[in-house]
Design a protein that fits this description.
With 319 residues, the protein is of the alpha/beta class. It folds into 2 domains: 162 residues, Quinone Oxidoreductase, Chain A, domain 1 (Alpha-Beta Complex), CATH 3.90.180; 129 residues, Rossmann fold, CATH 3.40.50.720. It has 9 helices and 17 strands. The strands form 3 sheets. Strands 1, 4, 6, 7, 8, 9, 16 and 17 form an 8-stranded mixed sheet that branches. A 6-stranded parallel sheet has the order 12-11-10-13-14-15, sandwiched between helices. Strands 3-2-5 form a 3-stranded antiparallel sheet, with no helix packed on it. The two termini are 26 Å apart. The chain binds NADP nicotinamide-adenine-dinucleotide phosphate. The site of NADP nicotinamide-adenine-dinucleotide phosphate has 29 residues, from α1, α3 and α4.
Length: 319
């Protein structure tokens, strides 16, 4: 095991002891997590806040185990490596997506995660963007891979202004697909900045005209990050048998007879991270992030529960 010479035994973490409102999260001292042989310990800098965190905190998934540290992704530097880990070294800039690994999540100064759920942060990528990206970008990538998105396609991203949607627009456009993204009017310029060829308010009277111009023969595929009454209208403009994919968590689950509909999860593997890093390469991913200070974690949860976040919310672990 290699460790940073300054590694403490105790850290600050945002902990939930029982399901409740945002104020149920409190910052307290807890032990720095253990380091199994195949893990790395990351000193976190920025961590992602997702709607799933708020749902878990509120008890939507059942009771919350006392002492739960939420959070599934973030960026930081390697503080220690387990004895079986050769790929990483103390001081490396990394980001990670590791969901459902015990109760020790990312809302903390340190997280211990399997090394195969970690990747180097591309050199030019800002740490605050890297901290918000892993879950949503890997999920968007899984969705595009499920749909077998290609450069020849006209791709509908329904719900393009949120986390998964932002990354799907950028990754799909980078693949060369013509992306049509749905977004409220105040988020449309942002969605176009990610590469969308066309944007449309899903509830507007103009949607018919936009779809006629953008996808006159219909959409080749649809990535769906939210469900609403408007979705059926967009589905009526799919080509025959065009595939539909949505990440688990979208409710009610979209369906359309005559079309293959796939539910998927974001891949957390090393190989998935390698593909994401290859797509990013030296490019800039203009993901919009709204940064909250770690001590304002409850405010970050209140904000995400209000809805209509454009881009992604991150916590700055600035203690
Ligand atoms: N299974 C997995 O691995 C996985 C991973 C990540 C996320 N997810 C799930 O994927 C979904 C999206 O996550 P996210 O982080 O991208 O969420 P998000 O940031 O809240 O984005 C949701 C998007 O859907 C749009 N939207 C919401 N309600 C809408 C409505 N009624 N009509 C039209 N558009 C609507 C939002 O736009 P407005 O804000 O303008 O309404 C936004 O563009 C969630 O259900 C999440 O749980 C699953």
């Amino acid at each position: 095991m290699t460790i940073s010479s300054t590694l403490p035994k105790v850290m600050k973490a945002a902990v939930v002891d029982a399901a409740g409102p945002p104020e149920a999260i409190h910052i307290k001292d807890v032990p720095v997590p253990a380091l199994p042989a195949n893990h790395v310990l990351i000193a976190l800098e920025f961590v992602g806040v997702g709607i799933w965190d708020a749902q878990q905190r509120a008890g939507s998934w059942g009771s919350v185990k006392p002492g739960t540290i939420m959070g599934a992704d973030g960026s930081g530097t390697i503080a220690a490596v387990g004895s079986h880990v050769t790929k990483f070294h103390v001081g490396d800039r990394v980001y990670s997506y590791s969901y459902g690994y015990g109760s020790g999540g990312f809302y903390a100064q340190y997280v211990s995660v399997p090394a195969d759920r970690v990747a180097a942060v591309p050199a030019h990528l800002e740490m605050k963007i890297a901290g918000g990206m892993p879950c949503i970008a890997l999920t968007a990538q899984s969705g595009l891979e499920t749909l077998k998105a290609t450069r020849a396609q006209t791709l509908l991203v329904f719900g393009a202004s949120g986390g998964v949607g932002s990354c799907a627009v950028w990754l799909g456009s980078e693949k060369g697909a013509t992306v049509v993204g749905t977004a409220r009017p105040d988020a449309q310029e942002y969605v176009r900045s990610l590469g969308a060829a066309h944007t449309v308010d899903p509830n507007s009277a103009e949607r018919e005209g936009v779809i006629k111009r953008a996808a006159k023969d219909g959409f080749d595929a649809a990535l769906v990050t939210a469900n609403s009454d408007a979705l059926a209208y967009f589905f009526s403009h799919l080509k025959p048998k065009a595939p539909i994919a949505f990440p688990n968590g979208v409710e009610p689950k979209p369906h359309l007879s005559g079309h293959p509909v796939s539910a998927f999860d974001g891949a957390m593997s090393h190989e998935a991270f390698e593909r994401l890093n290859a797509a990013i390469s030296t490019k800039t991913l203009p993901l919009r992030v709204q940064v909250f200070s770690f001590k304002d974690v409850a405010a970050a949860h209140r904000r995400i529960e209000e809805g209509h976040v454009v881009g992604k919310i991150v916590l700055h672990i600035n203690l």
